[in-house]
Amino acid sequence: FVPSVSTTWHSNDDDVYRAPPIDRSILPTAPRAAREPNIDRSRLPKSPPYTAFLGNLPYDVTEESIKDFFRGLNISAVRLPREPTNPERLKGFGYAEFEDIDSLFQALSLNEESLGNRRIRVDVADQAQDKDRDDRCFG
């Protein structure tokens, strides 16, 4: 005995199941920049300057290459300290200042991304500690 089997999956188009669109930002293969950075927003400065510390920079980095790295963000200034004994040589770290908090937040999502041949560190520059020291002096 062979039962009759229908060869169509479904005949009524109206209630065909449609999967919701996939939120690609939660997939593990999403590029780091597409994911929400794992940053505690309370660590972000409440007011300007919105400065990021940049660590492990290649020694041949330029202001232009930093601006290019943060392409699309509102970057207002780049500071690249140099060795006092050899002004040609960079110290391997720097600071990028952003015009708004969202640009700083987006910049932090680029932590560990490659610039040149190095994975650079992007973190909130420690301004709070400087302010605390100043407050204690007057306290």
TrEMBL record:
PROSITE patterns: RRM. The keyword Metal-binding does not apply. It comes from the Eukaryota. InterPro entries: EIF-4B_RRM (IPR033107), Nucleotide-bd_a/b_plait_sf (IPR012677), RBD_domain_sf (IPR035979), RRM_dom (IPR000504). One of its GO terms (cellular component) is cytosol. Residues 50-127 form the RRM domain. Keywords: Acetylation, Initiation factor, Isopeptide bond, Phosphoprotein, Protein biosynthesis, RNA-binding, Ubl conjugation. Signal peptide: none annotated. GO terms for molecular function: RNA binding; translation initiation factor activity. Required for the binding of mRNA to ribosomes. Functions in close association with EIF4-F and EIF4-A. Binds near the 5'-terminal cap of mRNA in presence of EIF-4F and ATP. Promotes the ATPase activity and the ATP-dependent RNA unwinding activity of both EIF4-A and EIF4-F. Self-associates and interacts with EIF3 p170 subunit. PANTHER family: EUKARYOTIC TRANSLATION INITIATION FACTOR 4B, EUKARYOTIC TRANSLATION INITIATION FACTOR 4B/4H. This is Eukaryotic translation initiation factor 4B. The lineage of its organism: Eukaryota, Metazoa, Chordata, Craniata, Vertebrata.
